[in-house]
Amino acid sequence: MMRPRRRSLPLLDKSHSTLQSRPMRKRDPDQPSLPFDPMPSRVEPCLALLKPTVPFGPHWLYEVKWDGYRLAIHIEPKGVRIITRGGHDWTPRFPTIAAAATQLGVTTAILDGEAVVLDEQGRSDFGALQRSLGGRGGKRVSQESLLYAFDLLYLDGHDLTQTELAVRRHLLEDLVPEAGSGAVQLSEELKFDGRQLLDQACNLGLEGIIAKHRDRPYRGGRTGDWLKIKCVQSESFMIVGYEQSASARGGIGSLLLAGRQGCDWVYVGSVGTGFSAKDAEYLKRALDQLRTNKPAVSLKGKRFVFVQPTLIAEIEFRGWTHDGNLRHPSYKGLREVQDNAAVFNVTDIHSAIDS
């Protein structure tokens, strides 16, 4: 049975009033007609650059950082396509989002957003989203997921990627109902002081916030136009082995993790918390099929089992030790290959430690 859709947890100001986006504005009827642009089959997504502090000033807007799968929703006369960050077609896996997109009343559009499943407190839960899809490599469809749309890249035959974010948001707010309850909702701009907003987000157990420059066009990659400021850090790491345990349920005491350095793998520590007995049993079965006598990292241990670098884990952690290992890591789940998860580059460790 499909559960009632939950609203996301609101952020509150000091008076405990819900923070609201700017009021929705009507489109300008005098906007000049522009020549039609061909609709791209895919747009390289703009990615947020991790920063330790919140930027300030009128040129920045803030949103909640959602914890799910990045998707582009292509609305065309012949139907809707849902494309992952890596360019894979996942339309069949998100039928409720696809159905909601057809009801937006637009002929052609490309929405940029994040598919999430909300927990009982209204927070995005990456593990719940994975379970709704049947786990890594699963073929289930997600009925519980919804899309938080935060950008509009194409509309009614016009390519919007070269226009500034403020214009794109203006058009998006007209297209996606504000404070809606459907499977496509607006990721609202939060009008609040950045420092206080981050504190509030962290107190509510959210992952963090996103800061975006209002005056910039939409550019693929990590350009610095979008920044992510996290309450707790979370990155993707390659599983290169596991430590056997006779006492732990599932037979896995911890997972051995590595980051990327050029074409090589560099050990960044192990994680032994965050996975259930069921997770451990699945991981052991999957990893035992990948066993190798040629470790991807230089590491020795009597109970270590090394595997081919194939499975990517999302890890939540509290920072880095000075010898380059993760501090207080916790396992969140496996990333899909189709999600094009970028394994953490260890050259970024030094800047993370210095910050």
From TrEMBL:
Protein's UniProt name: DNA ligase (ATP)
Keywords on record: Ligase
Organism domain of life: Bacteria
Gene Ontology MF: a single term: DNA ligase (ATP) activity
Family: Belongs to the ATP-dependent DNA ligase family.
Catalytic reactions of this protein: ATP + (deoxyribonucleotide)n-3'-hydroxyl + 5'-phospho-(deoxyribonucleotide)m = (deoxyribonucleotide)n+m + AMP + diphosphate
Domain ATP-dependent DNA ligase family profile: 138-230
Gene Ontology BP, a term: DNA repair
One of the Pfam families matching this protein, by short name: DNA_ligase_A_M
Spans annotated as Disordered: 1-38
EC number assigned by the record: 6.5.1.1
InterPro entries, per database record: ATP-dep_DNA_ligase, DNA_ligase_ATP-dep_C, DNA_ligase_ATP-dep_cent, LigD_ligase_dom, NA-bd_OB-fold
